[in-house]
Amino acid sequence: MSIEYIRSFIAQDMSIVDNVIREKLHSHVLLIRQVSEYIINSGGKRLRPALVILSAGAFGYTGKFHYNLAAVIEFIHTATLLHDDVVDESELRRNRETANALYGNAASVLVGDFLYSRAFQMMVEIDNMYVMQVLADATNTIAEGEVLQLLNCRDPQVSEENYLQVIRFKTAKLFEAASRLGAILGNATPEEEKAMAIYGMHLGTAFQLVDDMLDYSGNNQDIGKNLGDDLTEGKPTLPLIYAMRMGTQEQANVIRKAIEDGGKDGFQPVLNVIRQTAALEYAKKCAEDEVATAMAAISSLPDSENKKCLLQLASFAVTRNH
Q: Strand pairing partners for 93?
């Protein structure tokens, strides 16, 4: 089973989700429509909404609320991207100019706020307090993760534990919420819902670990952004943390200075140290461990095509090049 099979398996469902997204993006304010449509239609993987669809299907859900929740998840994710790119001063995402580069920082922040508020309007329509609690908690945790990451920037003393905490808050929490929501709609048992939450959390962690690896091992066209952006922004990601821990004092100093200074000048020397210390191999092993935990969490769920797709999605998280 391949990622293409998964896309084909849920293609009809995702087409409905896309229709919901287009409908709910409507605003009488032209700039809101322009910016939100630009970022929504810029070629994202739609993994998070796919998790809602697959999770709901795994528990036999036959209603229509999962389409709205999948769109809600995508709106929250898109809002974080809009805000992220402003904070990081990014110019390229998914091989296209970022919204802030095209429309300006003010428009990006304000349209991100619109998407958050529209997501909460859609939650209310579902009329399920537990669903609202899961999404409200997730959104709050993501915001905490954003602030933690901001505090970590330009700080070479960040530990692996602190780095992982940022990932679990900033990235993995929305994966967890997406997986959990499908189980809630499908009336899963508390144990099954917890299994889906664990799956989503560890899948999201693995996904971000691979993203951080690709910043030092991918190519611009595949990953859709400039190689070395994390270093330019002074982000101490796992390859850097491990290389500083395992390298010589001289090698550690090269990375420490690059994190503190930011910019692109130190990229090649840092890349040399990463390769010399096998830091990417270590990060890959950590991602594989996360995926193994994710897959084990749902191993006891009833067999179904949806479950097979969820397991394959976990494999894709660590084998992808973009």
A: 96
